[in-house]
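Reopening: 7-cyano-7-deazaguanine synthase still failing for me.
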Amino acid sequence: MEKNNKAIVVFSGGQDSTTCLFWALKKYDEVQVVTFDYNQRHNEEIEVAKEIAVDLKVKHHVLDMSLLNQLAPNALTRDDIEVTDGKDGGLPSTFVPGRNLLFLSFASILAKQIGAKHVVTGVCETDFSGYPDCRDVFIKSLNVTLNLSMDDEFVVHTPLMWLDKAQTWALADELNAFEYVREKTLTCYHGVRGDGCGECPACELRQKGLEAYLEQGTEVNR
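Support: Ran it again with your exact input. Result attached.
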């Protein structure tokens, strides 16, 4: 494959995708981002993504994926469904069936249009909620399928795949983006920026990782 230093990042404006954006900006000559509007629980996510894209001076694509909202009723697409963890081995109420399958497929179609060979996503198998479409085996399988479907040679990158949340904070720090990610991003399921509401599963996971990373730093400095 010819050398290609252009990438597109699947971007929600959250901790993980923003860390991936900083990672991509260090690695590639040109980076663009794509956000998907599927009538998610709070529109604030899209606004945050827009603001970060402007701030970091990257071209931002927002694609209409409202069909996903019609097909997949869950806590991220319906205000009347409570945000809950999975019970008895089941998936949490925030799981959107087919989301990463569709997002990465459309991101790759867009990548082909803009001449990018690299697609970056923040999925992670180490600290995740049991979502099947965050697994490494799924990403590798889809990467092959995307290349076959478009007769092209995309590479789907997952910089966070084997990192826990503390290690994700460490990566942001290595990229000189720790404070930016902590203050500017939106991870909270209830639409609260920065450290969030502190109560939903996304905030609890983020805060637990942050505390673990800060504690590691404290121990090193003792």
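The longest strand covers residues 30-37. If you still see a failure, please send the error message rather than a screenshot.
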